[in-house]
Amino acid sequence: MILIRRAQYLSRLLNKATASNYCRCYSDTHRKSSITEKIKQGPGLKDFIIESSEPVFTDRPHIPYLLENDKIKTKRKVFFDVYGCQMNLNDTDIVWSILKKEGFEKTTVEEEADIFLVMTCAIREGAETKIWHRLDHLRGYKRRAKDRSVKIGILGCMAERLKEKLIEKEKAVDVVAGPDSYRDLPRLLALTENGQTAVNVLLSLDETYADVVPVRLNEGSVSAFISIMRGCDNMCTYCIVPFTRGRERSRPVSSIVDEVRHLAEQGVKEVTLLGQNVNSYRDVSQATEKFDTHMAKGFKTVYKAKKGGMRFADLLDKVSAVDPEMRIRFTAAHPKDFPEEVLQIVSERPNICKLLHLPAQSGSSAVLQRMRRGYTREAYLQLVEDVKKTIPGVGLSTDMICGFCGETEEEFQETLSLMEIVDYNIAFLFPYSMREKTTAYRRYQDDVPDQIKKERHHRMLEIYRRKCQILNEAEIGNTHLVLVEGTAKKSGNILGRNELYLRVVFEQAEILAEDGGKRRVKPGDYVAVKIVGAKSATLYGVPLYHTSLCDFYRENQWGVRQAVN
Ligand code: SAH
Ligand code: SF4
Ligand code: F3S
């Protein structure tokens, strides 16, 4: 048995090394260890006997990642810096869970930190520029902290994109770890104790960290993120994500449902299911349940359509049933994966927020084709109509890119016209930034001048803000269900979010409670709030009474905009 495990370990190591050559530990002189050296460093018979009595993760062997000699000798304090998308926030919780188990401590005070871990993003050049500035600062900090050893680790997408180049370019960096190698972090950090630098940027076909219960950095928050899948197979021509996060894989349904239950028990009132493309979720370890979904007309994928397994509609069904008082959100989504079944379950369940992310990226069919999005402007608009019909009062959000390779003024105007037609409640608008390795980098010219990109970005923002102002003003007089998140530092006003994730601000007050008495508002409360004022990104209201999610919607039917008169 032990020999089989060792053989499996060696074969896994060889497979991984063949797939990608980037699991390397560097000495000070950056000598690259060969695969045979790596195997020699692997566990021996003794290690399997010792380690098997003390597993760190239930369904994964502790080996090969951390051997007794590799363990960190002193308690070390870690300072986290997080950039990028919500996946990075959740990944930081996973990293913290892994390190906490190994005896690391956490600090939010720079001066106390022994290790700085920077969770990075590579989506646009601007995102990376910010991180380079932060690294400049940390390099200076490390130089000044002469009397004690300070280590810097770069994690996440930029680590995956630049790999060992990061260490070559940025000499102050000690550890580089890609999104699929966080289990290896304790070992990588231990290696740095005797002056080595360590890199692990292997991408995995199956890593979902399903068995790692994330430890939230902001423990008191009423909302939490849950990663339900990792990676992306879509290969939009502009996007670096498939290269930094690898192939798409879904986490088993049972582990997601368990995590939702665990969070509900901790008093969390809102979970956001996360992934690059959550609605292509597919737990292949499960037989197809109720919903065997089809792609809507006019949409296609670039990859071979996958079959079977439990789909996103099934997952929503199960997750929303855990606690009817818990709001369920999900992001990011791809327009191709919104079959009738998904729309139906969103419309039926009061606790699934009726805000759908339908990232259009462009309003021009020609640009969409160059982007390899798999739909036309017409198919997208048809989807918007279907969504609105199935889910009355639904809110929509989008991502848009301007200045993509070859985008003409006429093509850009189609984006503007799409933004005029579709009422987006939330939009993330970006000027295009060419990324190495992507198809666009290899195939197209980044030929829209920066000045034009800037100007187009500005024009998109202007439409977006103007339309949001109109949409939000239309809410004045309506009553919204608001989940209270906290208090504004300066004004002391109460901050919360409505179903469409819009910020709602109101003054603290004693209001009618469920038991007939009166009480003040606190984080985690559901409050019925009458909207009395609106800006493009914020609603202002007057609190009416405490309520529950079920009671509010029982009294007011499903839907997001309810007038209680
Ligand atoms: N998987 C998600 C999110 C991807 S990253 C989705 O498909 O919606 C978030 C957004 O960044 C993308 O939707 C896209 O609008 C934008 N983006 C991605 N690559 C970009 C690039 N090279 N330049 C500018 N914006 C980009
Ligand atoms: Fe990038 Fe497209 Fe995947 Fe989103 S769907 S992560 S934009 S490749
Ligand atoms: Fe950035 Fe990676 Fe997220 S590139 S947007 S952190 S998936």
TrEMBL record:
Its cofactor is [4Fe-4S] cluster. Keywords: 4Fe-4S, Iron, Iron-sulfur, Metal-binding, S-adenosyl-L-methionine. This is CDK5RAP1-like protein. One of its GO terms (cellular component) is cytosol. Belongs to the methylthiotransferase family. MiaB subfamily. It comes from Helicoverpa armigera. GO terms for molecular function: 4 iron, 4 sulfur cluster binding; metal ion binding; tRNA-2-methylthio-N(6)-dimethylallyladenosine(37) synthase activity. It comes from the Eukaryota. InterPro entries: Elp3/MiaA/NifB-like_rSAM, Methylthiotransferase, Methylthiotransferase_CS, Methylthiotransferase_N, Methylthiotransferase_N_sf, MiaB_methiolase, rSAM, rSAM_horseshoe. Potential regulator of CDK5 activity. Residues 218-471 form the Radical SAM core domain. GO terms for biological process: regulation of macromolecule metabolic process; regulation of primary metabolic process. Residues 76-194 form the MTTase N-terminal domain.
